[in-house]
Design a protein that fits this description.
It is found in: Plastid, Chloroplast. This is Riboflavin biosynthesis protein PYRR, chloroplastic. By secondary structure, the chain is of the alpha/beta class. Helices cover about 30% and strands about 20% of the residues. It is built from 17 helices and 17 strands. The strands form 3 sheets. The protein has a 9-stranded mixed sheet, sandwiched between helices. It has a 6-stranded mixed sheet with strand order 1-3-2-4-5-6. Strands 16-17 form a two-stranded antiparallel ribbon. The longest helix is centred in the N-terminal third of the chain and has 19 residues. It starts with a strand and ends in a 7-residue tail after the last helix. The protein binds NADPH dihydro-nicotinamide-adenine-dinucleotide phosphate and ligand AOF. The site of NADPH dihydro-nicotinamide-adenine-dinucleotide phosphate has 30 residues, from strand 7, strand 8, helix 10, strand 9 and helix 13.
Length: about 550
Amino acid sequence: MPPPQPLLGGAAPAPARAAPSFLHLLLHTRHRVPTARAAAASSVPASHSSHANDALLLRRAADVADRSAGLTSPHPNFGCVIARPQPNTDSTDSWVVGEGFLYAQGTPCAELLAAQEAGEHACGSTAYLNLEPGDCFGDNTAVGSLVQAGITRVVVGLRHPLKHLRGKAIQALRSEGIQVDVVGEDLQSKLFEEALKSCLTVNAPLLYRAAFHVPFSVLKYAMTADGKIAASSGHASWISGKASRGRVFELRGRSDAVIVGGNTVRFDDPRLTARHVKGHVPVRIVMSQSLNLPDEANLWNVNDAYTIVATQRGARRDFQKKLAMKGVEVVEFDMLNPRNVMSYCYDRGYLAVLWECGGTLAASAIAASVIHKVYAFWAPKIIGGLNAPTPVGDLGMNQMTQAINLIDVSYEQIDRDMLMSGFIEPIPDLSPVIPSVEEIPSVDPEVSPYEANIISFYKTWDIFGAFSNFSPHPIHMPDENGDYFTWPTVEYYYQAHKFVGVDNPQARDIVQEIKLAKSPEEAARIGRTRQKGFPELR
Ligand SMILES: NC(=O)C1=CN([C@@H]2O[C@H](COP(=O)(O)OP(=O)(O)OC[C@H]3O[C@@H](n4cnc5c(N)ncnc54)[C@H](OP(=O)(O)O)[C@@H]3O)[C@@H](O)[C@H]2O)C=CC1
Ligand SMILES: Nc1c(N[C@@H]2O[C@H](COP(=O)(O)O)[C@@H](O)[C@H]2O)[nH]c(=O)[nH]c1=O
């Protein structure tokens, strides 16, 4: 166990912005009526420094949770920080004795990892959680780990966004005699604004998906100092520097899919992989109405990553067949547009989508209101060119007063480039998905926060379908030989394991068949039909 690290004390810096933000909207709609618990808590005023300390540690839990981004999808990003007062001092600053984040689906939860790292120091300490734990495996490990470790207080940033889990872990902890303070309910102070914002941001894709039934969409582009994304010829490599492009790999690694338009394929022949970073590789999606795409392209190499071409129904069927022969999935739409493609991505269970298209498709996506956040890399270069492409094509606006505002803007220098990121206004009010206890009946009359309702998410297009076995998220789990294998979805793993350990040579062949199935639905079909031939499996 490493020696405890000192945590920098003092109040968190005041937020450097004036406009009402994402967070303000949330706070103002979410906590209109103070809860009974909050009223009781506020009668015993906590000191400014203890609030500042809590806020700082909660923010740290969100930062720790961020390390699981791209690895846990479609599960939330969870982080846990365990801290206690510094020994033998009067200081109000805390010592961090353990930290953990959910590394991937099926691995030990953040709370268990943090408690293990803290060891005996966990006893009597406070645990900071960016999000109320869920209970994916029905074994209550998160709550159990904190209880067993002797944690006496838990600070929670957000209640769980999913109805059937909301409030469950909080109640379980309280019933074990642990003091649980939920930000905005038991802890109300301006000092928590930045911490709560971090907790929201680290799970923005899940919150958006649960609230609006669309994947969280980010538009990213690299432009010159004179606002061009390519030369007039269409040549664009490279505008931003190496370090910025490394950040793009990171953004890809956090996304379930990366989208480009037909022209970007024709001009750039991109790969759209998350190179240089380990972990999740997103699906590549090309939107092309004409399907007038090259016969050979990097995106058609599906050994790098899976590729889907979204096109207009009936477009170049001969070319569709060629793509299918290469392993590229072609999906026909009656009306190919960003909104329909986003509904489709939602149905496939995607949480986060990165748009890396040119200005033509970017304008369509913005006009269709499917973009939620923008990442603009700005490089100190001038290329000129009256017709050189710009990041966003025509939006039909002719007055600057019509401009779309970015809010909650951040600026970061990356080597010689500048990265500006911000949310597109209006930021939706997320309160319906994360209401406080008193608000729950008005949002969802049939659900009490302390009663688990059974929810159904069999297919990826069902509500909460991102959690289904069919959701296109691979898992790394043992195969029939006990070797770790990447199963394309949980359904593959589940069906194959019906036959693992069955004393019949045919069973091994069926496992191979399931591994090679083209879709989770096919894996399910094979598993269900073939099990009928095995009396012991019926
Ligand atoms: N610096 C940067 O960050 C980037 C630069 N670029 C550069 O941008 C240039 C290409 O820009 P651009 O032409 O805008 O490319 P896009 O990526 O926006 O591609 C436009 C194409 O998308 C397809 N599309 C499908 N549905 C729609 C829809 N509803 N609305 C609009 N388009 C749709 C069409 O393909 P089809 O014609 O096949 O039917 C259309 O021609 C290149 O020079 C490239 O190098 C591109 C990406 C990022
Ligand atoms: N030119 C340009 C970008 N262009 C984007 O990156 C894609 C190429 O990705 P890949 O083939 O994986 O390297 C390209 O098609 C376009 O979407 N991105 C940037 O960060 N900086 C740049 O200067």
